[in-house]
Amino acid sequence: MAEDSKDFYELCDKFELIWITTTPQNQIILLKQLEQFKKKIILEKPIVTKESEIVVLRQIICDSQANIYLSQPWTFSTLWSEAKKILLTMEGELAIHAERGGTLLRSGFPPEIDWGPHDLYLLYDYAHDLGAKGSDISLASKRFKENKIHLGYVLGTVTTLEIEIGYINPRKAIWKVYSEEREVLSLDFQNSELVDYRHGLEVRSKFIDDNPIITMLDYCAENNSDIDWDLVFELYRDLVQR
Predict the structure, then answer these.
(1) How is the chain classified by DSSP, letter by letter?
(2) Which pLDDT band, with edges at 50, 70 and 90, does 1 fall under?
(3) What is the pLDDT of residues 117-147, one digit of tens each?
(4) CATH 3.40.630.10, domain 6-70, yes or no
(5) Which CATH class is domain 73-210?
(6) Which of 57, 62, 66, 162 is the least buried, fewest Cβ under 10 Å from its Cβ?
């Protein structure tokens, strides 16, 4: 059915929570059509693929009466929750190295824009819980190479985050955290495993029964959105700007 048809509106009106899972261009169209609906709406990643879409989507979100969320299930995973508890208690300089990607190639946008939001959302969530503002996160380096993008961030004065994302074979989703040039944490999102090296031991935790998508949906159903869209769009600009 057409997105502006009566049947479309009647169907959407039956649900309190709507998850739009289509291309960024179609998401913008649908969100515009639904801006008068006082619903809860989740946007699939990526939400934009170029700078011009940021301007359009920002205005639609500003005008919308809906509660709008990001599809960011990894930030609701038990793996991330446990790792973040440790990260938030660590003092001194931290260096985080992230690598994520796979072999899936979609038409319409390159693999780094497909995979990148996962780690940008984790960065956003970590910064949010630190109480950091957008001005506390700065892009220090950016380069492209062989279907990959490298983004280097500085968070505050003591944390750096190096992200490499794009086409990777085999699929990979790893964060490694270093303190005083020594690895202290390893997060393997692909295999739901956290390894803690802080005390000279190798303490492994597996979260094989975790279901972060359900946790995310429960959160959206029970809570209003508190997303800092200015920061989200700045991170997306870093990703899509060529």
Answers:
(1) --TTSHHHHHHHTT-SEEEE-S-HHHHHHHHHHTTTS--EEEEPSPS-SSHHHHHHHHHHHHH--SEEEE--GGGGSHHHHHHHHHHHH--S-EEEEEEEEES---TTS-HHHHHHHHHHHHHHHHHHHHT--GGGEEEEEEEE-SSEEEEEEEETTTEEEEEEEEE-SS-EEEEEEEETTEEEEEEETTTTEEEE-TTSS-EEEE-TT--HHHHHHHHHHHS-----HHHHHHHHHHHH--
(2) very low
(3) 999 999 999 999 998 877 889 999 999 987 8
(4) no
(5) alpha beta
(6) 62
